[in-house]
Specification:
alpha+beta; about 450 residues; six-stranded mixed barrel; elongated
Length: about 450
């Protein structure tokens, strides 16, 4: 029961942190399910039985005569259980340390990876009703009149989030092997590539002055071009799109753009066709490139004022692309935060276990240490004697923990198309941290062994 009370006290103490990291309503609904409550009660019963079984087993072995003579030492463990428990604590700490490191490194990798397009100071204004999507060109021109707006482009979806990229049929009349494939598409206007600073590798960008670009010009990403092979710019291409009806567009590939992560980093870059589509089904967002030298707050206020005049019945919805992409990977950040605090708790428990084992071992070996000092053992030798059993326990913990974390890391990283290399250095880092914990846990006993005189050891029985 004391364990249950301690657990409740622990949750109460850590409630602010849990509130920040987790969706509390979801957590509460989970905890109140009858299955969860049943498991909780069953866990209390099992832990209570396990906690009492070992002492009861030892007591049952006692001979009454030995109890009267106070000769019960032969029934007691020689520390095997203590060492086993400390080894398990080390192994759990190692797993938590390494997995927390894995989560954090992958999160920062996702945040820092080059997306292939400029996302800072780019905001997306959502077209909220029929008035917006049919009259977006008017709003676009009004926004371009603002001194701080550097570019504005319409698009069918938001880049970097992976939603709204429809797969449509593509045909190349000169290539029978690619007569009918399905690629992702992105409907935009002439200013989209320049708004996001997407690199053009070959050919040219869309142009408002070339009328054929409206229906018969296509940009492909590098992955699509590599799938075709050979000279791609100038190829005859046919794209089938749907704007309420089947719309077959015939034209040419006018350019190749560098691959950019139009989907999230959970997915690898796939073939993409960028084309001009100003139908109301595809004018869902206005992408605005703001000025990096001016106050972002003031710029947003000006955007709100313009939209308020354009559509007084609606409140502007604005998305910061950089923030939206970062939000995609919040699951990794939240998981790493939770794992971090569990790791701290595990390290603390492991340190307590190591300290307890060190105290027990020191008291049991005081006479041995005294004899070693009388025979001329140096402080370095005494330190090695006290620590060598921990090195064995750490070695066993590593043998147990490293294969587990290797399997978990491979399984978890397989969810990402782009992932870090979780190599040997990370495993050694976990080992070094546990070695430091052992040294700190044994520091008091080591210093006591070095300072006390041998005669004081030899008096101890």
């Amino acid at each position: 029961m004391s364990v249950v009370i301690s657990a409740v006290a622990f949750i109460t103490l850590w409630h602010p942190i849990i509130h920040q990291l987790l969706d509390e309503s979801t957590l509460l609904s989970f905890l109140l399910q009858y299955q969860t409550l049943l498991l909780f009660l069953l866990g209390i019963v099992i832990l209570t039985m396990l906690a009492g079984m070992y002492p009861a087993f030892i007591i049952m072995r006692f001979n009454p005569a030995d109890v009267i003579r106070n000769n019960t030492g032969k029934y007691m463990s020689r520390g095997i259980q203590r060492r086993a428990l400390v080894t398990v604590q080390f192994a759990i700490s190692m797993i938590l340390i390494l997995f927390t490191t894995l989560l954090l490194r992958q999160y920062f990798f996702l945040q820092s990876k080059d997306a292939g397009f400029a996302k800072d100071y780019r905001v997306v204004m959502k077209m909220l009703d029929d008035h917006d999507v049919t009259n977006y060109a008017t709003l676009k021109e009004q926004l371009k009149q603002l001194s701080f707006v550097e570019d504005v482009a319409v698009s069918s979806t938001v880049v970097g989030l992976g939603e709204g990229f429809y797969g449509f049929n593509v045909k190349f009349s000169d290539r029978t092997e690619l007569s009918d494939v399905e690629w992702f598409t992105l409907g935009v206007d002439e200013d989209y590539v320049s708004t996001f600073d997407i690199t053009i590798l070959e050919g040219r960008d869309f142009s408002g002055s070339i009328t054929t670009d409206q229906k018969g010009a296509f940009l492909l990403n590098r992955t699509a071009a590599d799938q075709i092979g050979g000279q791609v710019v100038g190829e005859n291409m046919e794209l089938t799109v749907y704007t309420g009806v089947r719309d077959v567009r015939k034209g040419k590939v006018i350019g190749i753009v560098e691959d950019f992560h139009y989907q999230s980093l959970y997915e690898s870059v796939k073939p993409l066709v960028i084309y001009i589509n100003k139908h109301e089904y595809y004018t869902n967002y206005l992408n605005v490139k703001l000025n990096a030298e001016q106050s972002i707050v003031e710029q947003v206020k000006a955007l709100e004022a313009v939209y308020g005049e354009f559509n007084p019945d609606k409140v502007m919805e604005l998305l910061f692309i950089e923030d939206e992409i970062a939000q995609t990977y919040q699951r990794e950040l939240a998981s790493s935060k939770i794992m971090f605090w569990f790791t701290i708790l595990s390290i603390f428990i492991a340190a307590l276990g190591a300290f307890g084992l060190a105290t027990y071992s020191f008291r049991r070996r005081t006479k041995e240490i005294g004899v070693r000092k009388v025979l001329g053992a140096s402080p370095k030798h005494i330190t090695i004697v006290l620590l060598k059993e921990y090195l064995l326990l750490l070695a066993i913990a590593c043998v147990v923990a490293w294969p587990i974390i290797y399997y978990l890391s491979q399984e978890w990283l397989s969810n990402f198309a782009y992932a870090i290399d979780f190599g040997v250095a990370n495993y050694l880092l976990g080992l070094v941290l546990l070695v430091v914990i052992v040294l700190l846990s044994n520091l008091h006993q080591i210093l006591s062994s070095i300072r006390l005189k041998p005669v004081e050891y030899l008096r101890t029985e």
